[in-house]
Amino acid sequence: MPQVDRYKQRNVNIEFYAVEDCSKLPYTDRFSLIFITYGSMKGILNGRPISINAPGILCLTEDDEWQVTERHGLAAQSFNFDPEFLISAVHVETQDHSPAAPRIQNGRLFFQREDPNRAVPRITETAYPSLFQWFFILGTEVQAQSDERWACRIKKYLIQILGLLEDLNRVSHHSPVDAVLDYIHTHYPQKISLEDLTKCAHMNRVTLNQLFQERCGCTAIGYLLSHRLKMACDLLTHTDMSLNDIAGAIGFQYDTYFIKQFTAKKGMSPTSYRSISRKLATNV
């Protein structure tokens, strides 16, 4: 059953199950994000066998065919949401830095279902603590509805979870640059220095930046800024968070510095970006 927003008297089409046995999946009209925290599970997904060991994530759509074949000491939780809760505008920038035609931004792990491995995204040891924390807070917000902005915060954590999973699963091999990318994608809400990144890669800053230039076309700190601003675009479009809250959520100590960097890189202020992106989204 959808959550009833007691502040705004509306239905929010999401559910969180603190105990998920996975036998009733998938749920009608829902995408499901299942976080396996203990044990293991085997099953048949769209006719193909898969195996998941804790810690693990399973991503299912309402159209998936799923059957559990084995469970061993399984402990899991699930967050389930209407696809419309996820859909918003992606911003493919034109030469004048203005947002172009909107399309689905997040949730790529729920598509291209011909590859069952996409439904079981890779989780690194570095990423697990953040994923566990975000999933726990998300579930707590669903149950508590602590204030009128509870649904907005849930979108924030869903964006962070899906964004991190997608970033982790773009990597087909693991090099020192990949280790740093994993670190950035996981820790970007926190203070990060170039020294932190060189320690992660076990190399000096000159070599690290050279490898980043070859791989990403920018320095390691330049990539960190770019990733933070990418997440800011998602939060501006999907949520009603204040600029100060968004700045804090993506690792900026001051909203004034966030606004300065965003305007310099995107060619418009965060407020203008939010206004334009939402107009595009309503015209889809």
Automatic annotation (TrEMBL):
A GO molecular function held by the record: DNA-binding transcription factor activity
InterPro entries: Homeodomain-like_sf, HTH_AraC
Annotated ranges, domain HTH araC/xylS-type: 178-276
Alphabetical list of Pfam families matching this protein: HTH_18 (PF12833)
SMART domains in UniProt: HTH_ARAC
Keyword field: DNA-binding, Transcription, Transcription regulation
Keyword Transmembrane: no
Protein name in the entry: AraC family transcriptional regulator
The species this protein was found in: Paenibacillus pinisoli
